[in-house]
Amino acid sequence: MRNTDFVVRFAGEGGGGLVTSAELLAQVTSQVGYHVKTFVTFPSQIMGGPTFAQARISTSPVLSYGDQLDVLVALDREAYNTHQSEVRDGGVIIYNAEDFQLEEDEKSFGMRIDELAKSTGNPRAANMVMLGAIAYLVNMPEHYLPEYVTKRFSRGRPGDEEIIKGNIMALSLGAEEAKKSGFSLGALEDPTPPSGEQLLIKGNDALAIGAIAAGLDVFVGYPISPATTVLVYMERNLTGPGKFVYQASSEIESINAILGAGFAGKKSMTSTAGPGLSLMSEGIGLAWMAEIPTVIIDVQRGGPATGLPTKVEQSDLLVAIHPAHGDVSIPVIAVGTVEECFTGAALALNWAERYQGPVIILSDHGLSEQAQNIPKPDLSKVIVENRKVYTGNNGYERYDGVDVSPMPVPGGPGAYIANGSEHDPIGDTTHLPNRHVDMTHRRFNKLDLLKDDNYERENQDESIAIMTWGGSKGPTREAYDIMMGENQKIGWYYTMQLNPLPPQLLEELKSKELVLIPELNYLGQFAMLLRAKGVNAESITQYTGTPFKVGDLVTRIKDRIASHKKGLVNV
Amino acid sequence: MRNTDFVVRFAGEGGGGLVTSAELLAQVTSQVGYHVKTFVTFPSQIMGGPTFAQARISTSPVLSYGDQLDVLVALDREAYNTHQSEVRDGGVIIYNAEDFQLEEDEKSFGMRIDELAKSTGNPRAANMVMLGAIAYLVNMPEHYLPEYVTKRFSRGRPGDEEIIKGNIMALSLGAEEAKKSGFSLGALEDPTPPSGEQLLIKGNDALAIGAIAAGLDVFVGYPISPATTVLVYMERNLTGPGKFVYQASSEIESINAILGAGFAGKKSMTSTAGPGLSLMSEGIGLAWMAEIPTVIIDVQRGGPATGLPTKVEQSDLLVAIHPAHGDVSIPVIAVGTVEECFTGAALALNWAERYQGPVIILSDHGLSEQAQNIPKPDLSKVIVENRKVYTGNNGYERYDGVDVSPMPVPGGPGAYIANGSEHDPIGDTTHLPNRHVDMTHRRFNKLDLLKDDNYERENQDESIAIMTWGGSKGPTREAYDIMMGENQKIGWYYTMQLNPLPPQLLEELKSKELVLIPELNYLGQFAMLLRAKGVNAESITQYTGTPFKVGDLVTRIKDRIASHKKGLVNV
Amino acid sequence: MSKKNPEYDFKWCPGCGDFGVKRALEMAVQQRNVELEMPMANTVVVAGIGCSGNIVHLYDGEQPFGLHGIHGRSLPISFGVKMANPDLNVVVVSGDGDFLSIGGEHIAPMAQRNLNVTAVVMDNGVYGLTKGQSSPTTDLGVITPTTPFGKLENSLNPLELYLTLGVSFVASGFSSKIKELTNLINQGMKHPGFSVVHVQSPCTTYNDTYDLLKGNAKKGIDATVHDVPESHDPSSKQAAYNLLQEEGIPLGVIYQRDESDPLDQRFNVMREKANARDLDRQIAAFQI
Amino acid sequence: MSKKNPEYDFKWCPGCGDFGVKRALEMAVQQRNVELEMPMANTVVVAGIGCSGNIVHLYDGEQPFGLHGIHGRSLPISFGVKMANPDLNVVVVSGDGDFLSIGGEHIAPMAQRNLNVTAVVMDNGVYGLTKGQSSPTTDLGVITPTTPFGKLENSLNPLELYLTLGVSFVASGFSSKIKELTNLINQGMKHPGFSVVHVQSPCTTYNDTYDLLKGNAKKGIDATVHDVPESHDPSSKQAAYNLLQEEGIPLGVIYQRDESDPLDQRFNVMREKANARDLDRQIAAFQI
Ligand SMILES: Cc1ncc(C[n+]2csc(CCOP(=O)(O)OP(=O)(O)O)c2C)c(N)n1
Ligand SMILES: Cc1ncc(C[n+]2csc(CCOP(=O)(O)OP(=O)(O)O)c2C)c(N)n1
Ligand code: SF4
Ligand code: SF4
Ligand SMILES: [Mg+2]
Ligand SMILES: [Mg+2]
């Protein structure tokens, strides 16, 4: 084990147990100050089906899920077969000896997990048996787990004590088994606890909270993996006077409802995944044309069509920026970490208010399902922007001029017609060439309001740079850090603001010899867009439905740079 | 008057009269061997509203509508005010003296059109009065019009003779008025009649006929301007055993129905405009994913949203190639002339069959409404391709391998599941990374089958080239010819095949210093795509809802080239 | 807001039924404003795409807010507007194609929710704006540009549809009976829940049904429309069904649910009972 | 076609009603094949997205053709398949969300056309595949992840909806009564026109209604389902409406239109009467 960092995976037939185990491990360790990140993957089905959940625990901030496993808990033979090759040399496999038997080897030992759990009197303590064993293997201080268990199950109910006793017993039974196996992975170093309070939270919850923090009023959504949990969160928590949340009958209804709410003066939002985004195409075009603020979250999954509903991909970028017919260029914010889910959602609402139009947030399956520790957001520091509201007299020309103008709110002064046909200043339909020209300029001019120069950059003097986007940020950054440790000469750029791009960033990128873009899609979508803007960008693509591995990225980036230097490849 | 070429415009409140007049003029002149092109524009309303219709008549093939008017017939004052500035120096304006009066000037004369018509006993002969006047002005041989009228109204009915007499009288009354006015435009040269039989036909009818010629079986569409007439044509004419045509309840129904028909072994098609295309987004993604041949015609109009339903724009290119979430790249054929409507529709059906997936045809409002003389297509020369059909035994793996494979047809052998989720070889859902990788390769590999090197090129040694697309072909070519006449050094490229591009063409374009792309949209959509592919392309854009004027293009292209040569501008 | 911008170039054809509907709508809104002492600014007209939807641009006098969007989506838009601000008087104006064909999916959800908006549907049995194609209410066998050999589909009975879907106020009007229509639209606005006023509004250009609707003694045509009989009990769904089985088109209130609690009210009741957590407490729940 | 590809990883939960529906569907198709001496290759199963739609992958024995597309669109897809080749036996398999919510717009047009396909709708009153959210048939007040304080919408009565929309064959089945269900599906296939077999198919994971449907004497629960009484005249629409007003869920054929001419037949009759022009003559019409 790298004694600053370890990765444990639980694998078997789907069901809650695996996920709970990984999350428990993350909770326990984060509570004592470790940095954690979990990852879950499962088939698009309700019960059963090959599933795994893992947790990465580290003494310093965690950027990716971890390429290799230190510990694999394989609950059935299929899980063993599928995952064993990912266990690093020197790692350990705990397999479910009730399900299958292995020849003795230097890596694995069997444990009769359910039997041990039952022997404590609490058959549901199988989790604890596994955790006990893992704690022993990584030399976790003995008191962490029992303390956690005691705290968690002290709920002031009669049976509490017994449950706590059973669970602690299960922990030590697990530990004993691990001890008997003779395996050990060396001691995990003490954590340098993150400063300030921390949350352990998943991407979708963070998106929801970020939006609520920025003043969200109305949320209407239709269930779809992996976006459903945003809707579920809102249904429970978007409360208070004037707030409204609802499950729609389809995504076409969602988009039209939220643009209705945006027109009526409210901050509105929906969340969906690719198929829903495709259905919203026409409605998004209307919001752009009629200049109505609203926000669409797209939690990307594998595409096209129904695609791979429970796998990760970043292949909705092109359709997010140009979702509909006609000249549109929809602002897109791509969140890259759980923390950015919070800040990105708030920024999206602000953007929508500021430029008075639709904004799309791109997240992905990976972010949606990973729990991670992030600093507790300071609500007093969240910037909340509100649209310019028209407060003058009637007779207002809402669509006058080629810049953003105060927006009337129904019930108040300045009645006009928000129109999806080309329009005159009061919103009546017109076909005059000069109006179409002016209004087209107006719609595109407004994007200038979003060109904040917010981006990350490092080693900006290098002529070769890496710039990833969205959920590939973590692994790419980890790869970058490794290469920096090796004194490679590469610049780093990153922004959430994919459209419009921060202008200064774009200028810098244009001056590079080569910009490499790791992204999880086939077409190399972001690199395409950058090339169209004059950047010599090239993608490093992957389209397996799984996230990048850091090691792969390091190799591919280095190879690409080497061949570039040899002048072998040109775009 | 350029005595090889003249343009007549009829303008006034909407209604059939204007359009009929322009079309009559085109018919008469095309029958005696002139080349003609008409153009109509009207507001999105049923009756009334400012409308105009024009005809260009030329001794040689006509590429654009004509920038300037030789004759304007203004039926009311608004029409006069709107259009008079477009009459060239030395041109003539005939205005409706019953509606308004003008001070005397060197350009205009008034005519009491309706009154004259009524005096013939046939108040509906107003057209003929106007045509008579025009014929006089352009010195048209006197027998053309009477002969046409005689032929047209000899329908073997009792009243024929009287009608013919009345109309001929109206013609001469008009001619007399023109004579009295003292205006004249010099004689039109005799035509060099096109060789071979000709049709006078509009773009949408040509699209329909082209598709039928290539073996179309099933057409399902929903009305929308300017695509409705394709549906109307099909309803009347797509007949015969096994053929099916239907008006759907929405575009979502259309797209899903035609992909159902494509799956069932038929050649299927729909037609729509931007709003419908946006609604079809999800369905097109399904056809791509499940590998189902089908064709979507998008007759572009002004966008976004409801936009400008009766104006011309080329702003649906980006959404046509990438209409849906996930990695897709839909083949797109953009037709540029009425003749290409015929050939392009046939090619699209062939492409769909060949690569087994959806194909989009981009036409536009201009092409849909213009009547033009084109050579009568030789049906025996139309290439008709049919999909590879699977004829083996059951137990077939339809999605095996990464290349196109024979397609089973329901009722025949090889039952499989056409699946919009990622799938295994028999079409069952799977999430395995290697399957997603393989199937993604398969879907993109198939595009290689469409990379025919069909394109126009001239002066390919020049380092600066012009390449337009779609309906801007005519005016751009005319501009190019003018510049060639001035010995400018510019290359010419053109193809209907916008995606995938002919590979050899792409290579040539990449070797250019600068490729200029006249296109009717704001974003410069085609140039964006070309830059993403490594071509130094730059757009010459216009987004007025009207087609390019040749003179404007010449100026803008020259300016752009001049500034390029001064090194003032970079992309 | 002053109107009649010269740039606006849409006009209805002479005799189009929509003129009457426009007048009735203007008066019904006016009445409603007076009843509630409400400013015009509280009214939002959400329009579909079609000749009918253009009513929002042709509206005379003091102007309400308008939203003229995309084809078939006026109901879901109105849902967002109304629930964003339940104090607004939200009216949907739509055509038979817009409301019943491409937008047909949206009626059931609004009925199940009992959304408190009023939909005025101008039924001319044809797609007017796109020049005369068949619509869901076009009769079987009718010839149009897209059914050159006769329509193959049975026509839909919209009033029966609304009833079954659970629309809580269903009325039937005729564009030529402006006073009655005004009254129906006004009653629809008063009704606390989803109300649909389905109007026969003939298209003089593509489907002139005036003779058929009003009858024409000279041509020997009997009128199709007739008033809902006084004896009709609009609170009985069964009576409403029975009424619709009879010949002709009854004009008046077909059905009105007695106890109609609109969605905004349901939502508030629910929210008052629900235990809400403010954002601080929500965040605390994730605290490590 | 041999089945059970190890890569296919979907399974229904133990006890899921869809198992029974699958068995019934397999047998009904088998019967139909025998009746018409038709090969299995003539059957196409068009599936919606949901646990229910996965029936197409779990189908046992000789395999029909399948098309598993996108959420809510199985009806329009089946329309294209059927009209492309009316000889095919086209079956739609769908869930209550897929068929009645996002896909709800497609029922009316198919009914008006009397499209000759058979739709088997697995109603579990919940969105199964996305983990338990409310659907149009979920009852008012029910708590689900998206209605944490109780559903605010009235539930839809699908059988009544089908009747009103003019579906020409409407049947009601229960996944536990496999023999009866087989029979209903088979009758639907025989019916020349649009047939919907609406099946109570409980979701054991998110909405276990077995007790409620079958009754459970121990828990004092009366059964909700009961057979359509022998006296019921399925050719009477009025009788069908009346039947549906009664308590509980009747199982059997609710309605079957006597004279039912399916769209393909109407289309052929029309085409025979229409004067067709071949392509040469079409082109000649444009000749100068
Ligand atoms: C998505 C989309 N499809 C089609 C159209 C074209 N379209 C405009 S209005 C209309 C139908 C109008 O019929 P109806 O709703 O009955 O209104 P009417 O004009 O008869 O009042 C259609 C099909 C469109 N604007 N958008
Ligand atoms: C356009 C789109 N929206 C949403 C989804 C997500 N989704 C998949 S199945 C489903 C609902 C399933 O419910 P139902 O139709 O009742 O089928 P069941 O699983 O209950 O059998 C949803 C919302 C999707 N796949 N596509
Ligand atoms: S076409 Fe018909 S509906 Fe449209 S404005 Fe004219 S009369 Fe009215
Ligand atoms: S979730 Fe419900 S419907 Fe889906 S498989 Fe499980 S029991 Fe069946
Ligand atoms: Mg209509
Ligand atoms: Mg369900």
CATH architecture of the largest domain in chain A: 3-Layer(aba) Sandwich
Structural class of chain C: alpha/beta
| 3D shape of chain A | globular
Task: State the domain count of chain C.
Answer: 1
Gross CATH architecture of chain C: 3-Layer(aba) Sandwich
Q: Indicate the mean pLDDT of chain A.
A: 93
Percent range for β-strand residues of chain C? 15-25%
In spatial order, strands of the major sheet of chain C run 2-1-3-4-6-5-8-7
In the CATH hierarchy, the third-tier topology of chain C is known as Rossmann fold
Instruction: Please provide the count of β strands of chain C.
Output: 8
Which key terms come to mind for this protein?
heterotetramer, A: 571 residues, alpha/beta, Pyruvate-ferredoxin Oxidoreductase, domain 3, six-stranded mixed sheet, 21 strands, globular, C: 288 residues, Rossmann fold, eight-stranded mixed sheet, 8 strands, binds thiamine diphosphate, binds iron/sulfur cluster, binds magnesium ion
Short structural summary:
The complex is a heterotetramer, with 2 copies of chain A (571 residues) and 2 copies of chain C (288 residues). Chain A is an alpha/beta fold.
Q: Would you write up a description of this structure?
A:
The complex is a heterotetramer, with two copies of chain A (571 residues) and two copies of chain C (288 residues). By secondary structure, chain A is of the alpha/beta class. Chain A has four domains: 5-181, Pyruvate-ferredoxin Oxidoreductase, domain 3 (3-Layer(aba) Sandwich); 200-380, Rossmann fold, CATH 3.40.50.970; 388-450, no CATH class; 456-570, Rossmann fold. Chain A has helices at 16-31, 77-83, 113-119, 126-137, 144-153, 160-181, 203-213, 228-237, 251-263, 274-290, 317-321, 338-355, 365-369, 433-445, 473-485, 503-510, 525-532, 550-565, and strands at 5-13, 35-41, 50-58, 69-74, 87-96, 108-111, 198-202, 218-221, 244-247, 268-272, 294-300, 332-334, 358-364, 371-375, 417-419, 456-458, 464-467, 491-494, 497-499, 514-519, 537-541. In chain A, the strands form four sheets. Chain A has a seven-stranded mixed sheet with strand order 9-8-10-11-13-12-19, with helices on both faces. In chain A, helix 5 (144-153) packs antiparallel against helix 6 (160-181), helix 7 runs parallel beside helix 12 (338-355) and helix 15 packs across helix 18. Chain A is globular, with a radius of gyration of 26 Å. Chain C is α/β, with parallel strands linked by helices and 288 residues long. Chain C has an eight-stranded mixed sheet, with helices on both faces. In chain C, strand 5, helix 7 (178-190) and strand 6 (195-200) form a beta-alpha-beta unit. Chains in contact: A-B, A-C, A-D, B-C, B-D, C-D. Strand 15 of chain B pairs parallel with strand 2 (65-68) of chain D. One thiamine diphosphate sits between chains D (49-52, 71, 95-98, 122, 124, 126-130, 135) and A (222-224, 251, 275-276, 279, 306).
